[in-house]
Design a protein that fits this description.
InterPro entries: HotDog_dom_sf, PAAI_dom, Thioestr_dom. GO terms for molecular function: 1,4-dihydroxy-2-naphthoyl-CoA thioesterase activity. Keywords: Hydrolase. This protein has 158 residues and is of the alpha+beta class. The chain contains 5 helices and 8 strands; from the N terminus they run H-H-E-E-E-E-H-H-E-E-E-E-H.
Length: 158
């Protein structure tokens, strides 16, 4: 699958997630190596009004979404892959008034589970805010209950 197809699929997946639209999360890059999303800084995601530090829940949402959508970078066809487990190790708070980026890659794909890992950062990927690992359940192309989302992401009939 070409990188342009992966990018388009990631953008369509993200656009189907209402909470990501509200947060303003956008795709920065997507290819066969992984996915980078951007969470723009805004007053609505401040966790501590005295310091302006972003709430950890916004970063958790960014990283769960980044890991989940990174599955489209590794699978030949779209599949519904809900989160089974997500672990985030916070290294330090995000600096106020700066966007946060999330990168994730799929490092192992089995018939039933996809294993992902990544990190959140601001200016320098070598200075991560947090590290993440996540596992996602593969439900297959014919998964029940996800046909509307599948149709939205693939842009046609499911």
């Amino acid at each position: 699958m070409s990188d342009s197809v992966i990018l388009e699929r990631a953008q369509r997946f993200l656009s189907a997630l209402r909470h990501c639209q509200v947060l303003g999360i956008a795709v920065e890059a997507a290819d066969s190596h992984g996915l980078t999303l951007r969470l723009p800084y805004s007053s609505s995601i401040i966790g501590n009004p005295d310091t302006g530090v972003i709430h950890g829940g916004a970063i958790t949402t960014l990283m769960d979404t980044t890991c989940g959508i990174s599955t489209v970078c590794a699978l030949p066809d779209f599949e519904i892959c809900p989160t089974l487990d997500l672990r985030i190790d916070y290294m330090h708070p995000a600096e106020p008034h700066k966007d946060v980026y999330g990168f994730a890659e799929c490092y192992r794909v089995t018939p039933n589970i996809i294993f992902t890992r990544g990190f959140a950062y601001q200016d320098d990927p070598q200075q991560p805010i947090a590290h993440v690992v996540g596992t996602f359940m593969r439900m297959g192309k014919a998964a029940q209950g996800g046909q509307g989302l599948k149709r939205d992401i693939q842009g046609g009939a499911a």
